[in-house]
Amino acid sequence: MYEIKKLPQQIMIARYMLLGTVIATVVNFLLLLTNSDQYIPYSASVAYYLGYFGWLFDGAGGFGVFTAVGMTLAAAVLAVYVVSWALAAQKRRWLQVGMWLVIADTAALLGLILVLRMEIMSFVWELVLHGAVIYEIAAGISAWKKLTDEPEVC
Description:
mainly alpha, 75% helix, 0% strand
């Protein structure tokens, strides 16, 4: 009985993990564009690095064509997260889409680290937080399945 009361909360947490990802990424963009040396150790990596590399190509401080293109592409990626968050209130499938977005984002981050030969220890917290988000979303999907008799679609 107690577990059933917790299930809606797990679904809500899973949804807000998606929204939190968008918010953290937008904050990191604002920090980047104001030339701050601060960074929240979690973002939608694909979106963030699209904007970041555009910013770098514009001279790491200017807001030119490359930054605009990178930020536009990043906004499109973040829009998928927002749509997933919003529609996950009605359908479990959208929570699954959100989880696959975060899994793909984590794989892309690992690929970027390996391709650019970056120090993986610099990204430990980022990777741990990606894992935690994936876990929470998976728990929300599981809670949704327990709470409803929605048939499994795969």
